[in-house]
Design brief:
The chain is an alpha/beta fold. The chain is built from eight helices and seven strands. It has a five-stranded mixed β-sheet, sandwiched between helices. The protein has a two-stranded antiparallel sheet with strand order 3-4.
Amino acid sequence: MSKSQKPSAAEWVPATHDLARLRAAAPACRGCDLYAHATQVVFGEGPQDANVVMVGEQPGDEEDRRGLPFVGPSGRLLSKAMEQAGLDRDKVYVTNAVKHFKFLERGKRRIHAKPSGIEISACRPWLEAELASVEPELIVCLGATAAQSLMGRDFRITVDRGKFFPHHWAKQLLATVHPSAILRMPERYDEEFELFVRDLSLVAQKLESIEAAAKA
């Protein structure tokens, strides 16, 4: 890659709509430098016929070690909120805007580090390939990184949280907070969790109306 070229995963993304083939190809990606430090790539998980795709920021420490998305503390909170909102996680495809864990070492601990705009952009071909393969009715962006990856850098969750927007990768897109943000506010946990469930309930209601219209 020349210095004038921006990092991109595009050359490692196979031309296919088969999620199994995409997942098999992802470990070879060298689209940015994050692969050199992470334990492994963490690709999306869920059914290819999912009507809802949830997109987070990046894998966390536990996800990096296990190779699965949303299986750590944030994932457990997400599952709890989805259950209360009436969303079946087994029928939802979950993934991240960035597929490798970016971190800072603090002794024996690995502390989450926010991916840069270059890293988010470099990984976007994988996310777009996943969305093209699943063809969801709804996309749920969990946190600012996911929302800005799909809606542009000017998108603000503080302004447009819980609102539906048309999107070319789905009928509609909604953005809410990332579960990790709730975990970082223990003094406001109950209030923030309730708001998070409210947002996911909007997704469940919207999905119900879309499915009902399809059957009519």
